[in-house]
């Protein structure tokens, strides 16, 4: 219905914010007719009669009805149910009445009821009980009918609201008083559960793919109708799958894993596109030309450097800056896309560096510290990117120079007797917001040491520049150190040179191919997405608040179940949730934000175990006006589309938008990171050590990191320009 005279109706969410048209919320009534409360029941009055936040003078009251309703396009309200029929499942608040209403709207459904059942401890799920109309011919296929209802609800409701089981009933059980007897409703059997039926793979290609999926996902078998993400796949596993496919001659674009709905569809697309894939592979997959610098070189010439064009004068100037001269130069090549952006921000600042990272550890003894430093030196000897310096002065374009031999710089500090702890002193001395590294001197890391006099333990703060390591590479470095300290160095895979990635980024797709894609995606974007109105993307990280939040296990499990149900990745769901959050804090329904791409999807064999800065920031556009199911599918498709362009410079994408010069395309970032629980706490696996802190910053005013641990849950980290609250944004993201 509609409001009567002198009455105001509000449809609000759990935070008493107005919900959009069509969304279900609780009905609140305001206006002159609202009473003062319940006589003699102060507690109930306080619960039901609230201050009206929509009245300017603050004198108004509103009544909380407990009715669940939604606005219709006609301006009238539709009743959905009562909030005492609301349940919480896997972190979501669910209105059972809304599900029942959708069921009753389906053809052939006479009665329906939905319960949240926990027939097995810890396994709570929605179960729908349905009474159907009698068919005209007297014959009814209950299985087919329940599948039809399941598919219909999947199109109309979010995945977490689609019942796990549909139970056909001849009639609903009633009590002697004629009311529904919920206790008499039976537990669902296996046939009622919403499970995808198994059908064996058909043909050699499907059998090959099924075997690969089973290996990667660690499953006993995979059927031809199974979906990679429903089975628990994610982007890292998709990368591993693509690598294994390529090793068996199946040159499939990794994007197909994201877009194919089932194993059989992936096989079909591979078979149909194989000739085109072979051609695309040849056109976009680059085999990096080898460095032509001999190990005993006394002089270097430009023809020894196949990845960069330098004059002899420029090259001579470079060699002169290297301790040991030409004999200590292993390679010279250009910067990767994100490295160029980080160098820009380094040059923009004078006294600090927003992309300086710090990892701090405590060691029980000096011997434990010495063993760690020796293992770190071995890792440096293995990986060229850890022996790299950056040069730009007097050059046509910046380059990175790999040294053959380097020692890790160690600086030992004496603790002062000033009443403060040694740990706090070392943290002040190595504050990334107040110090810099000389990028022209390799390595771009240094270890600061200090003994704790009272305990005999030692502290180490390792400063590293983001130019040489991303988050995944830092985890890999810690894992290699742990293996070396446990005498398992023989288990380390061959080191992958960072030059391979640079070659792929520089020699793969052409700028024209990148521009065509981004003009299509962003050409009509003429207004920026500015969360809280923040537009400064030249920050130094000093006025940024940080907050952390581990999502409840129930919510993490619910997200995984929802992703499997929809056949998308958890990352896609999180990108959509972030887009919705940005929409609220920027006042836009068409949002653009930066997504941090893994960068290793098309970087060649072994890239998943390589050290270096592989990540890249790319703009993702999300239009929030449509149905949620269609939007999340589009997000998954657009993320897959970005993979082909994951090596493009962000500045190129910015130029392809419709924004005026100087207006930032990206002001907020989402960095979705996969990792094992062990990798997240890798320093703790090093004997005699304790992790103290690991810090990283960005020049953007808003960054959300989502860490997805294989055997655990999801964890959020928000960095937000002050005075806005990072903690509040964390909590808002949890509810998004």
Span from first to last CA?
29 Å
CATH domain class name of the largest domain: Alpha Beta
Give the tally of β-strands.
Answer: 24
Residue-averaged pLDDT: 83
Largest sheet: 6 strands, mixed
Gyration radius, rounded = 30 Å
Task: Give the structure's gist in a few sentences.
With 736 residues, the chain is an alpha+beta fold. The strands form 6 sheets. Strands 18-24-23-21-19-20 form a 6-stranded mixed β-sheet, sandwiched between helices. Strands 1, 2, 3, 4 and 5 form a 5-stranded antiparallel β-sheet that branches. The protein has a 5-stranded mixed β-sheet with strand order 15-16-17-12-22.
How does the SSE layout of this entry go?
Blueprint lengths: L6 E6 L12 E7 L10 H7 E3 L9 E11 L5 E6 L3 E4 L2 E4 H9 L4 E12 L2 E10 L9 H15 L8 E4 L34 H15 L17 H13 L7 H5 L3 H22 L27 H9 L8 E6 L2 H12 L7 E8 L2 H17 L5 E4 L7 E5 L6 E4 L8 H8 L15 E8 L4 E9 L5 H15 L13 H9 L3 H12 L21 E7 L2 H14 L3 H17 L3 E8 L18 E8 L4 H16 L6 H7 L11 E8 L1 H4 L8 E7 L6 E8 L4 E8 L4 H10 L1
Parallel strand pairs: 9-10, 15-16, 19-21, 21-23
Antiparallel strand pairs: 1-2, 2-4, 3-4, 4-5, 6-7, 8-9, 11-14, 12-17, 12-22, 13-14, 16-17, 18-24, 19-20, 23-24
Helix pairs in contact: 4-5, 4-7, 10-12, 14-18, 16-17
């Amino acid at each position: 219905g509609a409001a009567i005279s002198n009455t105001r109706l509000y449809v609000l969410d759990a935070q008493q914010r107005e919900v959009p048209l069509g969304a279900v919320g609780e009905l609140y009534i305001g206006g002159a007719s609202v009473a003062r409360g319940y006589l003699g029941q102060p507690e109930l009055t306080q619960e039901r009669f609230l201050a009206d936040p929509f009245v300017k003078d603050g004198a108004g009251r509103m009544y909380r009805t407990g009715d669940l309703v939604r606005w219709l396009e006609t301006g009238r309200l539709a009743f959905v149910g009562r909030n005492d029929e609301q349940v919480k499942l896997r972190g979501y608040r669910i209105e059972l009445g809304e599900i029942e209403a959708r069921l009753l709207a389906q053809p052939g459904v006479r009665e329906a009821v939905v319960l949240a059942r926990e027939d097995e401890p810890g396994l709570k799920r929605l179960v729908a009980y349905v009474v159907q109309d009698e068919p005209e011919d007297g014959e009814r296929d209950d299985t087919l009918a329940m599948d039809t209802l399941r598919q219909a609800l999947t199109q109309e409701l979010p995945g977490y609201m689609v019942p796990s089981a549909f139970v056909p009933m001849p009639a609903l059980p009633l009590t002697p008083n004629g009311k529904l007897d919920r206790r008499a409703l039976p537990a669902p059997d296996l046939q009622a559960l919403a499970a995808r039926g198994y059908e064996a793979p058909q043909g050699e290609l499907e059998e090959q793919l099924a075997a690969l999926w089973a290996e990667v996902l660690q499953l006993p078998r995979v059927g031809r109708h199974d979906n990679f993400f429903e089975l628990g796949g994610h982007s890292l596993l998709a990368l591993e799958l693509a690598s294994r496919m390529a090793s068996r001659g199946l040159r499939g674009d990794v994007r197909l894993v994201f877009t194919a709905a089932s194993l059989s569809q992936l096989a079909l697309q591979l078979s149909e596109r194989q000739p085109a894939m072979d051609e695309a592979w040849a056109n976009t997959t680059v085999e990096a030309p080898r460095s032509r610098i001999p190990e005993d070189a006394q002089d270097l010439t430009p023809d020894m450097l196949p990845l960069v064009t330098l004059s002899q004068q420029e090259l001579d100037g470079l060699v002169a800056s290297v301790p040991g001269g030409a004999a200590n130069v292993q390679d010279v090549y250009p910067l990767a896309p994100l490295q160029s952006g980080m160098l820009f921000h380094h040059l923009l600042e004078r006294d600090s560096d927003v992309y300086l990272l710090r990892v701090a550890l405590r060691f029980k003894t000096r011997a434990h510290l010495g063993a760690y430093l020796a293992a770190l030196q071995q890792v440096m000897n293995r990986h060229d990117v850890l022996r790299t310096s950056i040069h730009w002065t007097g050059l046509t374009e910046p380059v990175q120079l790999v040294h053959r031999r380097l020692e890790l710089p160690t600086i030992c500090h004496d603790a002062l007797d000033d009443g403060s702890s040694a740990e706090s002193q070392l943290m002040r001395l190595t504050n990334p917001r107040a110090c810099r590294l000389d990028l022209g001197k390799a390595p771009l890391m240094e270890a600061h040491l200090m003994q704790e006099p009272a305990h005999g333990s030692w502290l180490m703060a390792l400063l590293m520049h983001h130019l040489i390591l991303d988050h995944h590479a830092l985890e890999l470095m810690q894992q290699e150190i742990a293996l070396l300290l446990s005498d398992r160095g023989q288990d380390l895979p061959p080191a992958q040179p960072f030059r391979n990635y640079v070659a792929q980024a520089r020699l793969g797709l052409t700028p024209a191919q990148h521009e065509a894609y981004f003009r299509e995606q962003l050409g009509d974007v003429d207004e920026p997405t500015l969360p809280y109105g923040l537009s400064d993307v030249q920050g130094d990280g000093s006025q940024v608040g940080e907050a952390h939040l581990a999502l409840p296990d129930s919510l993490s499990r619910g997200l995984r179940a929802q992703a499997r149900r929809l056949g998308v990745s958890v990352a896609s769901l999180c990108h959509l949730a972030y887009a919705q959050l940005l929409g609220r804090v920027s006042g836009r329904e068409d949002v653009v934000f930066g997504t941090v791409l893994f960068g290793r999807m098309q970087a060649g064999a072994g890239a998943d175990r390589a050290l270096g800065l592989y990540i890249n920031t790319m703009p993702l556009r999300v239009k929030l006006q449509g149905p949620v199911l269609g939007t999340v599918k589009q997000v998954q498709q657009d993320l897959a589309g970005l993979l082909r362009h994951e090596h493009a410079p962000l500045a190129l994408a910015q130029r392809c938008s419709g924004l005026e010069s100087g207006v930032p395309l990206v002001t907020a970032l989402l960095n979705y990171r996969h990792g094992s629980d062990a990798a997240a706490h890798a320093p703790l696996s090093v004997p005699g050590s304790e992790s103290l802190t690991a810090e990283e910053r960005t020049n953007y005013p808003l960054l959300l990191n989502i860490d997805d641990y294989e055997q655990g849950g999801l964890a959020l980290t928000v960095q937000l320009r002050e005075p806005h609250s990072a903690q509040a944004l964390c909590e808002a993201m949890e509810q998004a």
